[in-house]
Amino acid sequence: MKVVLIGLGQAGGKVTECLAEFDYDMGFDAVRGAFAVNTAKTDLQGLDIDTMLVGQNRVKGHGVGGDNELGAEIMQAEATEVMDQVSDRITTEAEAIVIVAGLGGGTGSGGAPALAKELQRVYEQPVYVLGILPGRDEGSIYQANAGRSLKTVVRESTATILIDNDAWRRSNETVEEGFKHINQQIAQRVGLLLASGEVVEGVGESVVDSSEIINTLREGGIASLGYASAEAHEDAEQNINTITSMTRKALLTGMSLPNAIEAEAALLVIAGQTDHISRKGVESARSWVEEETGSLQVRGGDFPLESDRLGALVLLGGVERSTRIQEFMDRAREAQTQEESTDPVAQFENEELDDLF
Length: 357
Fold this sequence. Notes:
A ten-stranded mixed β-sheet has the order 3-2-1-4-5-6-7-10-8-9, with helices on both faces. The chain has helices at 9-26, 41-44, 56-59, 68-86, 107-122, 140-156, 175-196, 210-216, 240-253, 279-293, 323-341, and strands at 3-8, 31-38, 50-53, 96-102, 127-133, 159-164, 221-231, 265-272, 298-304, 309-317. Helix 1 (9-26) crosses helix 7 (175-196), helix 4 (68-86) packs across helix 5 (107-122) and helix 9 (240-253) packs parallel to helix 10. The chain has two domains: 3-198, Rossmann fold (3-Layer(aba) Sandwich); 223-317, CATH 3.30.1330.20. The protein is 43% helix and 20% strand. The chain has 357 residues and is an alpha/beta fold.
């Protein structure tokens, strides 16, 4: 699937850069343009993709400080200028536009739904949002921001692919190391998904195309993405159990939204050398995904790839009714209530303390 990437905010810019680098290094050519937009000048410095600073009249290049209402206002005011910058990249060759944003901050959280709305109004291509949810330990303001942003972005985009920061975080990592690892995980999984709909060397028996990705990303819904890999045996028949066990691992422990299993639609992609892929293994794995997700729309196919490993990529569409999403939205509502009830002036009106003068 050929796409144009627009990264909003600090997280969005970094993930967009990682995605573009992964696509280039692998030679997939699925990313036809990559662009980063931010209100903070320092966050754009060092990015090896095209960039644009917005909101200079409002925040003077210093960012919005986690205020996603301000981020939305700035994007609403400057959406035309942003689209002018990316218009030459969004050609008829592009099959989709992907906005990449961290939903807990200010610029990406507020800007993603505002820009998605304008892009949907102007372009015929689907507009997807790759949204990154904050971890549980990232503070109440980030939870509240993400809840409000998610509620709006699901309405304004064609579909939203969610990445939970807690899903792929490893223990004993610094914050910087943790985010770097998560960004690499996102780039690998999303990069493989986009590339699986492209023409590559090798002829699979049932190759995935872009329409199957688009159909799985149910309009107006939330999607999640999982991946697992294993060493391939030279004899395809020996890989039957490998394919089924990889698929189980991808769905049960490798999803970007853990425990969000029930879905309206699903896509299973098995990547690897064509002569290593067992048709019996693929069909068995696809049937298992159908049973586990409760979906009657489980698509499947191959992704011919020169590698000594096999990979199972699982895309779930329509997971918005899952308990994982409900738990997050409950947490976001509680965080917003907490933020609203905290009055910084009240602490100075404590009658149990005497004034100094």
